Structures are given as structure tokens and as C-alpha cells.
Q: What sequence folds into this?
């Protein structure tokens, strides 16, 4: 049985966007990080929930998914963000740096074409805050073609919640029981 990839975004998932008044969830702790190519004199302020490391490790240890960063943070996800959460080094999808002014230049999440190529025919759980209806249609079509796909979409101002990871775990466990073919339309197209 081929394990599904667990594609994990960062902005809006692990790092929530501030509310209109500039506040972030009280569960999150501030950090200054220096992404690759940026000067140490100009760090980026981020907020992370220290519980996310434990929650993610519980999913990883379960052994039903292969975790992969899928974020515009690219390699910095594994060198900067992961260590702050106590995560081991994880591989990442090496996304390009497109010159775009919106996350949806073609009506769907800009990452999707690259992810689709990267995944090939592998099953996947993709956690990102920025899907559109066209992304959900893509996931349903992949599932219908035998490549089970689950999209989980946290609120970008709240970020990843324990119930999102529980949903991913239940879905992956169900998939492992039925094999890599689509376990029925509902498990492949659920979204949170």
C-alpha cells in the first residue's frame, strides 16, 4: 500500500494571519527568523503554536502518511520553521518563485500545477488555507481517477487545529485499509 503524502503549508496553516486589529491567536508564540537570502538585520516576525510540533509528530509516528513541506518557505520550512516546532528535517516540494500578484492567477491555487506534477499518481492529503472551488474539483477528479486526494483548509486567521490532523489521520487509516484506489468519493473530497 502506497502511503499518501501529507503536504503541509505554513502561512495561514502553521503561521496564522493576523486579524484586522493585528492580533494572532493567544496559543501562538512570536519568533524572529531569517529566511535564506535575507539579511540578519531584517528578520521576519512569525507566530507558531508550540503544540503543533507534538500534534504533527503524533501523525508522523502513526506511519500512515509521508510528510512533505509544500510551502513558499521551501527549504526554510525544514531549516527554520520545523526546528522551532521540534520537527525532524522533512523533505519539501521545491516550488518556483512565480512573479504573481495573487495566489490564484488562473482561478486556483498557484502551487497546484507544480504539486500535481510532483505527486504523479500518488495519493495525497494537502493542508493549505488558500484553496478555491477549482482546487476542490481537481481533488475530486484525482480521486475519481484512483488517486485519492483530501484537501483540508484551515481558517487562515486561526491556523491548523487538532481536528484537522484527526481528519487526516482517519482518512489515511481508512485509505490504508482499502488500498490506494479511491476509497469512495466522500473520503477523497472532504474539506475542512
A:
Amino acid at each position: 500500500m502506497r502511503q499518501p503524502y501529507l503536504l503541509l503549508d505554513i502561512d495561514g496553516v502553521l503561521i496564522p494571519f493576523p486579524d484586522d486589529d493585528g492580533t494572532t491567536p493567544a496559543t501562538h508564540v512570536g519568533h524572529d527568523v531569517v529566511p535564506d537570502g535575507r539579511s540578519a538585520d531584517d528578520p521576519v516576525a512569525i507566530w507558531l503554536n508550540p503544540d503543533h510540533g507534538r500534534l504533527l509528530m503524533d501523525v508522523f509516528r502513526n506511519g500512515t502518511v509521508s510528510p512533505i513541506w509544500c510551502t513558499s518557505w521551501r527549504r526554510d520550512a525544514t531549516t527554520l520553521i520545523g526546528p522551532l516546532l521540534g520537527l525532524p528535517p522533512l523533505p519539501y516540494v521545491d516550488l518556483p518563485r512565480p512573479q504573481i500578484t495573487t495566489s490564484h492567477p488562473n482561478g486556483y491555487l498557484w502551487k497546484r500545477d507544480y504539486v500535481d506534477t510532483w505527486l504523479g499518481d500518488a495519493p495525497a492529503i494537502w493542508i493549505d488555507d488558500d484553496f478555491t472551488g477549482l482546487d476542490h474539483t481537481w481533488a475530486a477528479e484525482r480521486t475519481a481517477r484512483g488517486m485519492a486526494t483530501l484537501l483540508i483548509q484551515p481558517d487562515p486567521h486561526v491556523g491548523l487545529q487538532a481536528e484537522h490532523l484527526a481528519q487526516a489521520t482517519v482518512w489515511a487509516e481508512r485509505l490504508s485499509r482499502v488500498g490506494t484506489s479511491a476509497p469512495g468519493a466522500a473520503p477523497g473530497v472532504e474539506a475542512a
Remarks:
- Strands lie at 5-8, 29-33, 44-48, 66-69, 124-127, 149-152.
- The mean pLDDT is 91.
- Helices lie at 51-62, 75-85, 112-119, 133-144, 162-178, 185-189.
- The chain has six helices and six strands.
